[in-house]
Amino acid sequence: MLKCDLCPKEYATKTDLEAHRNMHLNIRPFKCPKCPMAFTRADVLRKHKLYKHEGVKCPSSRPRKKQKVVETSDSE
Ligand SMILES: [Zn+2]
Ligand SMILES: [Zn+2]
């Protein structure tokens, strides 16, 4: 594990640790070309572009639907 030198967090990969350290240093290298927002990670920027600019629906912000759990009662 790679430990952050600014806090006790540990990360498995250098990419994750660097993205985390960018957050400490307030460095956001991944800038959105379509709005003034910037991000610490490339994957976060990609999701932002998809959801904000390409009309893709964010899976976490869809209206909550109660899904009935079908219980199978196998009494053997
Ligand atoms: Zn840290
Ligand atoms: Zn944007």
UniProtKB/TrEMBL annotation:
Residues 2-29, 30-58 form the C2H2-type domain. Pfam families: zf-C2H2 (PF00096). SUPFAM superfamilies: beta-beta-alpha zinc fingers. Residues 55-76 are annotated as: Disordered. One of its GO terms (molecular function) is zinc ion binding. InterPro entries: Znf_C2H2_sf, Znf_C2H2_type. It comes from the Eukaryota. Keywords: Metal-binding, Zinc, Zinc-finger. This is Transcriptional repressor CTCF.
